[in-house]
Amino acid sequence: MAHANAIFLSFVSGAALVLAVAPGCNNNTTQPPETAINWSVSPGTNSPTICGAGGGVTWQIGNPESNPLDVVSNGTSFTGIPVTVECSVTPNSTGFSVIAQISYGNEGSLTVNGQFDSHSGAASTWPAETGISGTFSSGSANAFIETMSETDCSVTFTKNDQMGVADGRIWGVIDCPQAKATDGTTCDGNAEFLVENCSQ
Q1: Residue among 89, 94, 53 nearest 171 (CA)
Q2: Structural domain range at position 39
Q3: Is there a contact between 160 and 124 (Cβ–Cβ < 8 Å)?
Q4: Single pTM value for the model
Q5: How many domains does the chain divide into?
């Protein structure tokens, strides 16, 4: 589903809000949660033989890089594969508490969990958020079937100024270069992800 222009909430210092019209942003919590994601697990600096057939696994829901954005709603499907989106982006005294899980049938899933600070100015100038937990699960549709997690992932917002965090919404790039499986296998998990219409 392609996005029309919508209201984007950009946080400035304290609790003040700036409202602006920007394409691809929707904070209407009466709508089902939506997502767009490019997901990958690759060797990174790790062994290329243990991080997916052919050196990596990728999948995509919608398109977080198209204009207008191509987003997919919870409970619908993309290329015939069911999509589930569960998320909360809740403001608190220092920023936002984020919990987001995106599942793509048997292809896999992404979970992002952590505290994000408030920042002013263009999102592309924001510093990376660190200490974020990320879990990359590759499903049975892929030759590589594993769940890999890291508690010190980084999330950046430098690709464009529409990225960032606001009530009920986050759009960024998570990188977990030392994501580990239970057997000690280590790979690089990376995803550009957008979730919106989340609980607040």
Answers
A1: 89
A2: 5-196
A3: yes
A4: 0.81
A5: 1
